[in-house]
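Reopening this one. Same input as before:
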Amino acid sequence: MGSTEVGRRDILKRSAAAGALALPAIGALSSCATGGGDGDNTVEKGKKTDDNPLGVNKTAALSVVIFNGGYGDQYAVDAHKVYERSYGKVKHEKTQKIRTRMQPLMVKGNPPDVINNSGAENMDVASLIEKEQVADLAPLLDAPSLFDPQKKVRDTLIPGTIEKGRFGGSEVYQLNYSFTVYGTWYSKTALERLDVEYPKTWDEMLAVCAKAKKQGIAGWTYAGKHPYYFAFTLYPFIAKIGGADVMKAIDNLEPNAWKHDAVRKAFEAYYELYAKGYVLKGTPGIDHIQSQTQWTKGNALFIPNGSWVENEARKTTPKDFQMTVAPPSSLDKSDAMPFETVFAEASEPFMVPAQAKNVEGGMEWLRVMMSKECAQNFTQLVSALTCVQGAADGLDLTPGLTSAGEVLSAAGENVITPRIHDWYLELHKDQIGGTIASMMAGDMKPDEAVKRCQDFADRTAKDSSVKKYKHT
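Same output, byte for byte:
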C-alpha cells in the first residue's frame, strides 16, 4: 500500500478544524451534465386508468440518473426494460458524482426525472426540500402496488421506510429502496483460522486484535478518506452503552448530547484500536474500495460497513471468505442495550425532482422498481434486501446477505435508526466524520474529539439558515 502519511494529517486536521468540506460553487460545477430537457414545459399528462394509475404519458421519454456505487446500475437498466413495456424510452445515466452533476440542474430547474441521490457526493436533500425542489411521493405511495395489486405501495414497505423519507412533516420526499444492515463485517474463515469467535465485548475485541497482530494481521481497516463509515458501528455502539435516547439527543442537537458518558466511552474504546496498533498501516489515507480490498485480501479482520459491501467487494472476495456481519461488540455488561442491537434502515435514496419534465413517469418508474420482478432481481444481482416486504422470500441468498438477515432478526426491536446523516449532512459527514478521522489517526485524543463534535453540533443548532428537525 505504501506510505500515505504525506499530507494526510493536514487534510484531516483541516476537515476537523474547518468543520466542512465546502460544496463546490455552482458556477464551477460541470456544465456538461444533462437533465430531463431544456427547462421548458413539462410533458403532457396521460389519462389515469386502472393500468396507469399515475396518469403517465405513455409516449414521453424518461430520464433516470443512478449512483454507480456498491450496487452498480444493472438493476436499474433491467427496470428500464420493464418500464418500457408500457411507457416511453428511458434515458439512463450513471455517475459517482451525483452532487457535481445534478446540483446545477436542480438550480437551473432542468433536472432528470429520477435521481438516485447516494454516495459520497450525494446532495443535501433536506436543503433541496426546504427549497421545494423535491416532489412529494404521496401519489406513488397511494397507487396500487405491482407486487400485490390488492395493496397500496405504502402498505407493501418494510416498517420505517416511509418515516425515513419524511423531513419534519407528513410528506414523503424520498424513497429509500434498499434495506441496509450496518455493522462490523468480517470473514468467518479468517476468524476460524485464528481459532477465535466474533468478540461480543470490547475486551474480547482487543484480545482478538492482539492475537491477529502477532500473526501479522491488522485488527481493523476502514475508509480513511470517507470517515463517516465509522458511524455504521460507532452510532449503535454509543446507543448500546447509553441507550437509544443518547442517539436521539444527538439527532435533536440537544445541548451536551455529544458529551454524554456513552460517547466518551465509545470514543475511548475505538481510540484503543489506534493506540495499540490494531489498525492497518496506511488506513487513514485510503478510500472505501481500497480498504475493502485490503480486508478481502486478509490484511485486516474487521471493517465497518453496510450490506452493499458484499456486492461492491465481490471481485476481490475469495470463494471461501464466508463474508459475515455482526453487531458492534458491546462495551461490557453495564451496557444499556443488548449485544444484538444494530443500526439498520431503509437506504439508497431515490427522489423525483419537483421541476422534472416527467414527474408522473418518475413515480411510475419507482413503482416498477417495487414490483416483485424488480425487487427480486435487485436482491439477486447485488446481494441486498429491498424495502419491499417479502420480496426476498424463496431466494437463495449469499453468505453476507444471509448473515444480515439473521442479525436483523436477532435484533428484534433493538434496531436504531439515527437521522443525523439525513437531517444534517454536513455535520455528520464532514464535521463529525472529520473529527473521528483525526482521532483515529492519532491527531487528537478522545476528550478533544468529544468537545469538537459538541462544538460542531452547537454551531449547527445555532445556525438559523439550517432547518431543524426532531424525533417525535
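So the earlier flakiness isn't reproducible anymore. For the record, The chain has two domains: 24-176+349-384, 181-344+419-462.
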